[in-house]
Specification:
mainly beta; 7-stranded antiparallel beta sheet; 4 helices
Length: 279
């Protein structure tokens, strides 16, 4: 799957998909029958009202993975996003965002977690490979106890459920899976100093091998029910070896951690920064 952008107004549109649904973007707009093609998972995409509306699944907890190949060349100012999000003002959200850069400079992998409308929990990384040269797997594990971001099976970040310490955790609002390629040159590259070079358009990011194992939310109930024994990812955690992998990534490739930003939080760091350090 690819989504190409050649003009700023197009770039704001984005792409929405949930569970086993894969879309090809057409040039016209206004009708799902004409402009979208479901290549697999047809039973999860329900089109109605003569193609004017489309229903997709929502999930409460899941393990999602996607292979991406990012925009090559001069991608400065673009952001390729792949994330889970609920709806409404006080929404929950779990973000993978890939911040483009000028040719020869590394991409920045930007991660964030929102709960009850509050975000500001960014961690950023350089990658140890060229993400534009080939496909790599980016996965999100979201269960009642933790969120784990992984790249090619290597966990790079863990966000624990610390509600007992007064830290909100996304566990009550079902979310859909979204992806978009959009114009963020007001902040994405060197804080907005480098703008998009539209002579390099179209900008194309490629996706493949989407896989999700999740609890589907329907009419206020979870498909996992009360017996979660058949879904071991609901209890998954980082063992000692995987904790070592996370430490390796964060020691060598992390370039920003909100829990170390005393200029941004001059009075006191967010509570979870103290709790997670010792938990």
């Amino acid at each position: 799957m690819a989504y190409s952008c050649s003009h700023p107004s197009i770039m704001e549109a984005g792409l929405l998909f949930c569970l086993l649904v894969n879309f090809w973007i057409a040039t016209s707009a206004g009708n799902f029958y004409q402009d979208f093609y479901v290549t697999w998972g047809h039973d999860k995409a329900n089109t109605y009202n003569n193609g004017e509306a489309l229903n997709l699944n929502q999930y409460l907890f899941g393990k999602v993975e996607m292979q991406l190949k990012l925009v090559p060349g001069n991608s400065a100012g673009t952001v390729t996003a792949y994330y889970l999000s609920s709806q409404g003002q006080n929404h929950d959200e779990i973000d993978f965002e890939f911040l483009g850069n000028v040719t020869g400079e590394p991409y920045i992998l930007h991660t964030n977690v929102f709960s009850q409308g509050k975000g500001n929990r960014e961690q950023q990384f350089y990658l140890w490979f060229d993400p534009t040269a080939d496909f790599h797997t980016y996965s999100i594990l979201w269960n009642p106890n933790r969120i784990i971001f992984s790249v090619d099976g290597i966990p790079i970040r863990e966000f624990k459920n610390l509600e007992s310490n007064g830290v909100p955790f996304p566990k009550n609002q079902p979310m859909c899976l979204y992806s978009s390629l959009w114009n963020a040159d007001d902040w994405a590259t060197r804080g907005g100093l480098v703008k998009i070079d539209w002579t390099k358009a179209p900008f194309t990011a490629s996706y493949r091998n989407f896989n999700i194992n999740a609890c589907i939310w329907n009419n206020g109930a979870s498909s996992c029910g009360s017996d979660w024994s058949n879904n071991p990812w609901l209890w998954e955690e980082l063992d000692y070896a995987r904790q070592g992998q996370t430490k390796w990534v964060q020691d060598n490739y992390m370039i920003y951690d909100y829990c170390k930003d005393t200029k941004r939080f001059p009075q006191s760091l967010p509570n979870e920064c103290y709790v997670q350090k010792y938990s």
